[in-house]
Structures are given as structure tokens and as C-alpha cells.
Design a protein that fits this description.
Blueprint lengths: L7 H27 L1 E5 L5 E6 L4 E6 L8 H31 L9
Amino acid sequence: MPRGEIDEAWIEEAVRRYRRIETLQAEFDQAVSTVEVTVRSPDGLVEVVVTAGGRITGVRFLGPLHSRDPRAVAASVQAAITAAGDAAQWAREKLHNETFTAYRPLAGA
């Protein structure tokens, strides 16, 4: 194609790909807010449910608390929350890879 001419086919393909990316992004955003991961503290006392977006949606104690040292309970809660943050990041990365795996940049076309 001579220099200075507009490649209409390239522009149409770019617009089509942009719209597809917008659709994929919306699907990803929806999944991030709804997919949940459940983790437990290393001692099994605390269970935390977190979305891929990092929002904690549930906390449960899986054993009695009355006989436990408050510092040990606090440590269990902290460990479960830390694990929940790691799990949320893992879930986001997994969802991102699954959502955008088929996308190829226009430059490579």
C-alpha cells in the first residue's frame, strides 16, 4: 500500500479487537467480584472466604476458642487473612489468564 493511504481493513480489525477486549474486560471484572476462594490458617482454626478481588466474604472459627490463648487466636486470624490475600491474587491471575488466553495483540497480526 502506498504511503499515506489509510488501511481500512486494518482499522476495522483494530476496532473489532478493541470491542472484544472491552467484552473480555467486563467478563473478567464480573468474575473477579464473584469467584471465591476459601483458605484456612495453618493450625486449621480459622477459615476465610475471599473473592478474587480481595473482598473477604466470610470468616469462621473451626474449633473452640475458650481454651486458646488470645495471642494464638489473633495469630491464626492474621495467618488466614494473609493467606486469603495470596489466594485472591492467585485467583485474579488465574482468571486473567483464562479470560485473555486467546487474545493476540494486533501488532502481531
